[in-house]
Amino acid sequence: MSKRDYYEVLGVGKDASQDDIKKAYRQMARQYHPDVNKADDAEQKFKEAKEAYDVLSDDQKKAQYDRFGHVDPNQGMGGGFGGNADFGGFGDLFDMFFGGQGQRRNPNAPQRGNDLQYTLTIEFKEAVFGKETDIHIPRTETCDTCHGNGAKPGTKPETCTTCKGTGQQEVVQNTAFGRIVNRRVCSTCGGQGVTIKEKCGTCHGSGKVKKQRTIHLNIPAGVDDGAQLRVSGEGESGTRGGPSGDLYVVIRVKPHDFFEREGDDIYCEIPLTFAQAALGDEIEIPTLTEKVKLKIPAGTQTDTYFRLKGKGVPRLRGYGQGDQHVKVVVVTPTNMNEEQKELLREFSRLSGENTHEQQQSIFERMKKAFLGD
User: Measured in Å, how far apart are the chain's first and last C-alpha atoms?
Assistant: First the structure.
């Protein structure tokens, strides 16, 4: 496959200055460096950019490239763009562009364990008042037999002879532009830096085993649906003496048949008869903890709200509680007997409701509204 034009690779024109070329290369190096970009083609693009930069940043090589392109006029005479220059490894370049943050990781260094997540479903009132409970989670823990090193008791892991404990192999490629050194995960030890000749019979060399862990939780009063509790150190165990991860418990709250919650406030709906709304009454209202008396004034309209102060949810981060809001709904009577109907007709007559004159008056007003009179 033919090579792409070096100027095209870096995205600059042939009249680009050395500063422009360097700036373009730095940008591509940051974008495609294998320690940063894990895409399949990232390494290839990084090498392509490096090759282009090595030529275009050198005035002599650039002049030769501008004249002959990718053809090496010195081929067979020991010349060429790259000579015997060593491009070095990715680690050195990463240090150059990222301030030393890309140094090769020590494969034998302690590593923190993974975090775990557990979803816990609780009842509505358990969320309001809090709850203590035990949960059971599967997780990986350090093997007690080999103490995490993966080797059979009485033996120990040995430094990998292929990578000398670095966890990486160097692959050298000789090109027309010089010698390219690539670092890859060691194929012998898989990047661990050590090999195990006699594996632990319990964990089979992994250093970890699956176990069921029982954890006691204290769910605070006032927790809401979707809340997340962090239990420090109850995640999966670390590697080579590293700390354990954390456990995150996500709370899911079941809905209640009567109450609804908005923040720290509680809402409920209470039916009223026509007589209670018209004449007033004193009724019992259920709250989260008890029943309380609520006075309904005469003439109360449907959808009116009453507030019961301090009868809501305990505040999770603070003092006191929210309120309970009671919505009253006037219920229209159904299945009335003849005596009840007659009494309502008498009430309507005495109130002057639905008289012929009123109906005529309403009809005239509607007519005017539609006709624009």
Answer: 86
Q: Which of 50, 13, 11 minimizes the C-alpha distance to 29?
A: 50
3-state secondary structure of 208: strand
CA distance 61 to 84: 14
Q: pTM for the whole thing?
A: 0.58
- DSSP 8-state symbol, 14: T
Q: Which residue has the tokens 């809905």?
A: 255
C-beta neighbour count of 357 within 10 angstroms: 8
How far apart (Å, rounded) are the C-alpha atoms in residues 331 and 273? 5
The amino acid that residue 13 corresponds to is G
Q: Crossing angle, helix 42-56 and helix 18-32, to 10 degrees?
A: 160
And the tokens for 277?
A: 């709304």
pLDDT in tens, 253-287: 999 999 999 999 999 999 999 899 999 999 999 99
Give pLDDT tens digits for 159-187: 998 888 888 888 887 777 677 778 888 88
DSSP string of 128-141, one letter each residue:
HH-EEEEEEEEEEE
Give the number of other Cβ atoms within 10 Å of residue 11's Cβ.
Answer: 14
- What are the DSSP calls for 309-349, one per residue? TT-SPBPTTSSSB--EEEEEEEPPP-S--HHHHHHHHHHHH
Gyration radius (Cα) of the chain, Å? 39
